[in-house]
Write a structure and sequence with these properties.
The protein is α+β, with helices and mostly antiparallel strands. Helices cover 19% and strands 35% of the residues. The chain has a 5-stranded mixed β-sheet. Strands 6-7-8-9 form a 4-stranded antiparallel β-sheet, with helices on one face. Strand 3 and strand 4 form a beta hairpin. The longest helix has 12 residues. The radius of gyration is 16 Å and the shape is globular.
Length: 171
Amino acid sequence: MFGITTVTIGWAQPASTSKTFFKTEIKHEFSSVSSPDLFKLIVRGKNIFDAVVTFQILNANGKKIYDEHFTVGELMEFGSAETDKAYKRSKEDSVFIIGVLSQFFDERNFLRPAIKDSSEMKDNYSSFEDWNIIWQEKTPIGFSYQLGAEDGRCIAYSLKKKKVILYFTCC
């Protein structure tokens, strides 16, 4: 039996009846090294700037094991004075956002192993229990992604807990 990890950031809610601005899917090993999972990123909303991003991972059997929702504003760090000055909600800005979304599943974001033997747990950025589970399991693959400039995250699938664990979040 597999668990599902659902995360909702800020006020983000899936927008099922809105326009789809971006969608990408890739297959990559994650919960199992022998059967690739399906990683999906879907951006829906009234416009690209106010849209909601749905990030999902489905295992090889099609069961959802991770489900996170956040706004494009949170991804691009809208809301800060510096960022709001930089974005004029222009066509060029929307092209830039699509470019950021297009790189979300780059191979460099897949970590092998999820936690290196030489890595040290940082109290302020990790739960000791979650870090330890992933480190002790020698989880072969992790995934790292960034929301804004100061919210880096690392997730991995725990065979012990049978679910995706957020084992590192920083700055």
